[in-house]
Specification:
Chain A: This is Peptide/nickel transport system permease protein. The complex is a heterodimer. Chain A has 11 helices and no strands. Chain A is mainly α. Chain A starts with 19 loop residues before the first helix and ends with a helix.
Chain lengths: 290, 516
């Protein structure tokens, strides 16, 4: 899906300036713009439930009622207040996306590093497996899982997470390749360090920039996947921006705000995430160029 | 009078979600795609009907029709012996008379003597006998919905008279032949080249996209109102409505209730609205907790605000339901008091029965109708006030009607368009093939068996009242409301008539429509 140039990170851990990534981003205006967008959406999500004018499930008007005093964004497909649902609908969406990305990244990073330090034959086999998964379109993979187990918050999050693993593992494997040829890694291995020690003490600290960028990529992909699934009707049943798009698409000519309001929230959040991630990628690339 | 053997399989099979590639941008693209078609370009009149939606599974063999397109084809190309007419009662169609003996176990069907097949041959009693025998010999779907017919006891008495000697007496006989799946076909029927007696001939078939019919000018009940009928497929209700108001189609066969005002507000177009016996009905599984307890079933009935449901989901287009089926059946018991929304009483009932509130219940639903999801969401919201914590799970329709069908604690099914007896035979009695509630009541079954053998209308109505009282007090179904048929029409179209007991716009009887 997303192609990414993997920076060649070969700097040993004792040379690293831990604050350099953050410093590079602090002077990047695009990072600031992205951060402001992300924080704005997160703040709306956190405070939304407290300031929503009506409970999100309450019927307050007829279906697709136009905006009116007391109903600033109009009503949705069942006559519920769109503003209240936008204010409340971010929580489930953001939490599900965040957990899915973290889960997918977590497993993918460990798998990718394992492939990276494995022997040629094992690595070849594992890469073949992950490539086989990658040829299945991601959304299809998720739909198959949901069809088998039904859509609820757990299956949604886990299936979206599963779909990320192969991609992350590929990227992390490539980054790990750059580490395993370094002397400090060979020295650690020769000194009898265990596999876990090698992975988490020698490899991970040296590819952390790549992992962070990959996390940003996967986060965006997970949110798009969740929004797409909601649009197809697979949502966890909670009030959610993704589900709102699905619910209200039939009235897009009558009450476009019921669709656009959640779309705008998702779009602002994803744009912000992408800006931050790109700034991070530039910072990582800049550091390794030094 | 009552009941048809309409689709003998759960109706949701007709709709499935397109698993299309999805993304946010994709949302905005969907609204605009329509298929265009031209209307009258010379003196011949062409009626264009938009429908959601045709499929490449649409059968040319009426006995195997399970889809919207299959029913459309059956209604245009063929005739059934009887039909549910505009008043909701059955009337003869290809038959001129359907008469019982004294005990309803022998029925005599007299055919119209002027009906012909589209190749010019007359429709005879032998064709009817061959059609019925074919259902059973090939185990086609109608054989499953006609348990009282013995195919060896169907005889042609003369050229236009058929005698049925039934396995057991039943007054439901005439209604059983209203379903488009029971259309009569020639004795030498070839599904690949369907020859029928109906008002139209299928002249072109682009499966899943468009059906083109040419008028049968010699139709025995009078030539249809137009020379050509084009039935065009639309992916969803929104795009069909846009095509109507853009002048691309003359009839939008099913308008979503939320967009009625848009069409009514467009000059030159309006929505023809009539009540039907169709209903989206909640099924409570009486084999599982908590709905094995009649108290919980009654409590959930009180937890549904039926008027609010009609207002919020259906924009007011619908009529109140009272947990029993088909108000258009003359046997319907209208004396049962209307069930009112009373969440406090529901809560009190549950607490008195020892339940700790909120009572968790799983609801499984699919998009078997465009409004199904909305109806389920409203139930979740309304029932919360009565102490129910309903977890709604959406599954696609193939999954819904798959192996797990009948195991859901609570689910929403699409029923109706069946007389009271057929509805009971399909979904309520102990032997009903689609009784996914698994509810049984020996007293109910005894009343049913007695009623279907009772030829006297007054006596039978009394028995049905007793049946419906049992359903009302302890049955497994919540029938919250009855759906309106909403058909979008160009002002050029005339002849629109209500068919309250038939599924689809005018029961898909497009022969009644004219242009200009």
């Amino acid at each position: 899906m997303t192609s990414l140039d993997v920076p060649d990170i070969t700097t040993p851990i004792h040379d690293r300036h831990t604050g350099s990534l953050l410093r590079a981003m602090l002077v990047d205006p695009r990072a600031w713009a992205g951060a402001v967008a992300v924080v704005a959406v997160v703040v709306v999500t956190l405070l939304g439930p407290l300031i929503a004018p009506t409970p999100p499930g309450e019927f307050v008007a007829r279906a697709y009622a136009a905006p009116a005093p007391g109903l600033p964004l109009g009503a949705d497909n069942l006559g519920r207040d769109v503003l209240s649902r936008v204010l409340v609908g971010g929580g489930a969406f953001l939490v599900e996306g965040l957990i899915a990305a973290a889960l997918g990244i977590g497993v993918g990073v460990v798998l990718g590093m394992l492939i990276g330090i494995s022997g040629r034959r094992t690595a070849g086999f594992l890469l073949f497996l992950s490539d086989s998964v990658m040829v299945i379109p991601q959304i299809l993979l998720v739909l198959i899982i949901l069809a088998a187990f039904g859509a609820n918050p757990v299956t949604l999050t886990v299936s979206v997470a599963l779909a990320q693993i192969a991609y992350t593992a590929r990227v992390v494997n490539a980054a790990t390749q750059g580490v395993v040829t370094e002397d400090y890694f060979r020295a650690a291995r020769a000194s009898g360090a265990g596999r876990a020690g090698l992975l988490f003490r020698e490899v991970l600290p040296n590819i952390i920039g790549v992992v962070l960028v990959e996390f940003g990529v996967r986060l965006s992909v997970c949110f798009v996947a969740l929004a797409s699934l909601s649009y197809l009707g697979f949502s966890s049943g909670a009030v959610s921006w993704g589900a709102m798009i699905h619910e209200n698409q039939g009235g897009i000519t009558l009450q476009p705000l019921a669709v656009f309001a959640p779309v705008i929230m998702i779009a602002v959040f994803l744009l912000g995430m992408n800006l931050v991630r790109d700034a991070l990628a530039r910072a990582v690339a800049g550091r390794s160029a030094r | 009078m009552f009941g048809t053997t309409h689709s003998p399989r759960p109706r949701g099979l007709r709709r499935s979600i397109p698993i299309a590639a999805a993304g946010l941008g994709f949302v905005l693209l969907l609204a605009g795609c329509t298929t265009s078609s031209s209307t009258d370009d010379d003196t011949s009149s062409v009626l264009t009907v938009g429908i959601a939606s045709l499929s490449d599974a649409d059968s040319l063999d009426p006995a195997e029709a399970t889809t919207t397109g299959g029913y459309v084809i059956s209604r245009q190309v063929f005739d059934t012996l009887t039909e549910f007419g505009p008043d909701g009662n059955w009337t003869p169609q290809l038959a001129t008379a359907v008469e019982p003996g004294d005990t309803a176990d022998v029925w005599t069907v007299t055919l119209a003597d002027d009906a012909t097949w589209s190749d010019g041959d007359p429709v005879t009693a032998d064709d009817v006998v061959a059609t019925v025998k074919r259902w059973f010999a090939e185990e086609l779907p109608p054989s499953g919905s006609l348990p009282f017919i013995d195919p060896d006891q169907v005889e042609a008495v003369d050229e236009h008279t058929v005698k049925f000697t039934l396995l057991y007496p039943t007054v439901t006989f005439p209604e059983a032949f209203t379903s488009p799946t029971t259309a009569i076909v020639p004795a030498d029927f070839d599904p690949a080249k369907p020859i029928g007696s109906g008002p139209f001939v299928l002249s072109d078939n682009d499966p899943g996209v468009q059906l083109t019919f040419t008028a049968n000018k010699d139709y025995f009940r009078g030539a249809p109102g137009v020379d050509e009928l084009d039935v065009v497929s639309f992916a969803d209700a929104t795009s069909a409505a846009s095509a109507l108001t853009a002048g691309q189609i003359d009839v939008d066969a099913s308008v979503d209730p939320t967009i009625v005002d848009v069409i009514d507000g467009t000059t030159g177009y309006s929505v023809f609205d009539y009540g039907t016996s169709g209903t989206l009905t909640w099924v409570m599984n009486t084999q599982q907790a908590p709905f094995d307890d009649p108290v919980v079933r009654q409590a959930l009935r009180l937890a549904v605000d039926r008027q609010q449901l009609i207002d919020q989901v259906y924009n007011g287009y619908g009529t109140l339901g009272n947990d029993v089926f088909n108000p258009y059946d003359p046997m319907y018991d209208a004396d049962l008091p209307q069930r009112e929304y009373d969440p406090e009483a529901a809560k009190a009932m549950l607490e008195a029965a020892g339940y700790t509130l909120p009572l968790a219940v799983k609801l499984v639903g699919t998009d078997n109708q465009p409004t199904s999801e909305r109806q389920n969401e409203v139930l979740v919201q309304q029932a919360a006030a009565a102490g129910f914590d309903i977890q709604y799970e959406f599954v696609d329709s193939a999954t819904f009607y798959g192996d797990a069908y009948g195991t859901y604690p609570l689910s929403l099914s699409f029923w109706g368009f069946l007389g009271i007896f057929d509805q009971a035979a399909f979904t309520i009695t102990a032997t009903a093939p689609y009784n996914s509630s698994h509810w049984t009541d020996p007293e109910y079954d005894a009343l049913f068996d007695q009623a279907i053998q009772t030829v006297d209308d007054t006596e039978r109505k009394d028995l049905v009242a007793q049946m419906q009282t049992i359903e009302y007090d302890s049955g497994p179904y919540i029938v919250p409301m009855f759906l309106d048929a909403l058909v979008g029409l160009s002002d050029d179209v005339s002849g629109a008539t209500a068919y309250p007991n038939s599924d689809g716009a005018f029961g898909y009887n497009f022969r009644i429509l004219s242009l200009g």
